[in-house]
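In the design runs reported in the main text, the only information available to the sequence generator was the tokenized backbone. The following block is the verbatim input for one such run; it is reproduced so that readers can re-run the procedure and compare outputs position by position.
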């Protein structure tokens, strides 16, 4: 038996009406909540910030970007007008590959934020950076046909680190490369005794030496005869130099180690060193090969002057412009190359690579240099 309807009961529509806007049925509550969620998740100009605004507010600010850009712009300008004039600039320019990388990030942020003036300045810095590091991207050049069968000489240049006690390992590494000539930088008396003990004196009978108790000893060992072999002193520092016969002509090899730019006095000494060396190289009647620890990167003023004088970089010619030699994992400093092989344009680099350098903060440089046969000399000999 069905109960009669209660006259005081409220029908569902009436209940919803009396409940008012704050008292909804479950279905309508879900609908309203879903609608609000959908509205919040949508990307509408009024509800959410633009990507540029979010980036500006939470990650970077135009002011911070301008400060970074200003510092980089000043450094770039000083590089152009003063280059290595001060000790600070020498170190900044030595790490040119790394110093200007933030400009790329600034340029990207400026484009996202639509900051035109900032983008223009950042783009200018990036353009300068690409101009400075661009030669490192160049591929290896093809060797001229007349050098295909030209006689070559293999030279190993190694800064052994005068305090390094891993004599046997590093000497064995040099020996494995089978050099015709090798040059040792930071050549100390313990290294001399180690070389003698491993019969290197017998196998490389032609040599010039200047062992020292500091980091500026130097030596040149050769299997082929050396003429006019001598230790030449520049600014109190020894330079090993000697001539060899290659392709029927005299070629003079220089082993060098100018001072590192750690103090202002050393910077002045280094500048004087390069001036004397460049004047000597330009006055020689025969081709030259210069190897050693230059204490200068490819971005340095001294290196640029050697290129301007006509010398050629072995690494650049063989498409290895970004090869590094220091600090060889000994410190957290970003790797750079301060060990080089450069030569006169009459010669050519067939191959260049770096060794391991056991115990040293430098990797050895192994380079094969070719010289075309001097036809006039050959005819005179006939």
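Verbatim output:
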């Amino acid at each position: 038996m069905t109960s009669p309807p209660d006259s005081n009961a409220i029908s569902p529509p009436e209940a919803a009406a009396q409940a008012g806007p704050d008292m909804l049925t479950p279905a309508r509550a879900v609908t309203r909540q879903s609608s609000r969620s959908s509205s919040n998740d949508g990307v509408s100009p009024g509800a959410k910030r633009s990507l540029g605004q979010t980036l500006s507010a939470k990650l970077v600010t135009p002011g911070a970007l301008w400060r970074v850009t200003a510092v980089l712009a000043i450094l770039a300008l000083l590089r152009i007008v003063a280059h290595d004039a001060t000790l600070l600039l020498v170190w900044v320019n030595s790490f040119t590959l790394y110093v200007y990388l933030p400009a790329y990030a600034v340029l990207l942020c400026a484009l996202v934020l639509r900051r035109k003036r900032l983008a223009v300045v950042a783009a200018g810095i990036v353009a300068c950076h690409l101009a400075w590091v661009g030669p490192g991207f160049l591929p290896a050049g093809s060797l001229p046909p007349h050098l295909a069968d030209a006689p070559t000489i293999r030279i190993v240049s190694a800064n052994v680190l005068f305090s390094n006690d891993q004599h046997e390992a590093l000497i064995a590494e040099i020996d494995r490369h089978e050099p015709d000539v090798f040059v040792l930088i930071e050549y100390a008396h313990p290294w001399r005794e180690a070389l003698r003990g491993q019969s290197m004196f017998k196998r490389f009978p032609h040599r010039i030496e200047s062992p020292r108790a500091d980091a500026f000893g130097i030596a040149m060992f050769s299997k082929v005869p050396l003429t006019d072999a001598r230790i030449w002193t520049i600014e109190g520092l020894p330079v090993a130099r000697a001539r060899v016969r290659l392709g029927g002509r005299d070629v003079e090899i220089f082993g060098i180690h100018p001072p590192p730019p750690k103090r202002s006095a050393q910077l002045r000494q280094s500048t004087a060193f390069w001036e004397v060396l460049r004047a000597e190289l330009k006055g020689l009647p025969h081709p030259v090969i210069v190897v050693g620890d230059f204490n200068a990167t490819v971005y340095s003023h001294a290196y640029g002057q050697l290129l301007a004088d006509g010398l050629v970089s072995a690494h650049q010619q063989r498409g290895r412009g970004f090869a590094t030699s220091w600090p060889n994992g000994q410190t957290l400093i970003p790797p750079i190359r301060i060990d080089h092989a450069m030569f006169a344009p009459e010669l050519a680099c067939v191959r260049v690579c770096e060794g391991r350098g056991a115990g040293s903060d430098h990797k050895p440089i192994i380079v094969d240099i070719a010289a075309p046969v001097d036809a006039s000399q050959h005819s005179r000999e006939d």
